[in-house]
Write a structure and sequence with these properties.
The chain has about 140 residues and is mainly beta. The chain is about 10% helix and about 45% strand. It contains three helices and seven strands; from the N terminus they run βαβαββββαβ. Strands 1, 2, 3, 4, 5, 6 and 7 form a seven-stranded mixed sheet that branches. The longest helix has 8 residues.
């Protein structure tokens, strides 16, 4: 079972964007975005820690479903909305929170020894950080 850290500091409202496809969407990414290699290896049952807009990790999610190739279009309210469940390039994670973490992300990164070219030694994110796997 893998562990991953992802960033949603832009406060993207995944559950609202993907509500037409089901409940519990908590993160999405496309192949052109940083961290795709790690993100594309996430499987059902893996644990995903999401950094929120307050720079905290409130909970850890367990991945219960993954939808591939979702097509999106612009939306004035949420930034994006589902255009089609097929034919796109967005990979969406669905799951449920399984445990409270309540930790600032930089402390979480240093505590867990997470390394990425998009993270500083002190656990700060560089611009473009999206996903990293860790053990």
């Amino acid at each position: 079972m893998g562990k991953f850290l992802v960033s949603n500091i832009a406060n993207r409202r995944h559950n609202k964007i993907y509500s037409v496809l089901g409940n519990g969407a908590f993160f999405d990414l496309q192949p052109s975005q940083h961290g795709w290699e790690a993100y594309s290896s996430i499987s059902e049952g893996d644990k995903v820690f999401v950094i929120n807009h307050n720079r905290k990790i409130p909970v850890v999610y367990e991945v219960q479903e993954i939808l591939e190739e979702v097509a999106l279009e612009d939306d004035s309210e949420f930034g994006s909305r589902v255009a089609s469940a097929i034919g796109g390039n967005t990979r969406v994670l669905f799951g449920k929170p399984i445990e409270r973490v309540d930790m600032f992300y930089s402390q979480f990164i240093t505590t867990n020894g997470i390394k990425s070219s998009k993270l500083t030694e002190e656990g700060q994110m560089y611009q473009g950080f999206n996903c990293v796997g860790f053990s």
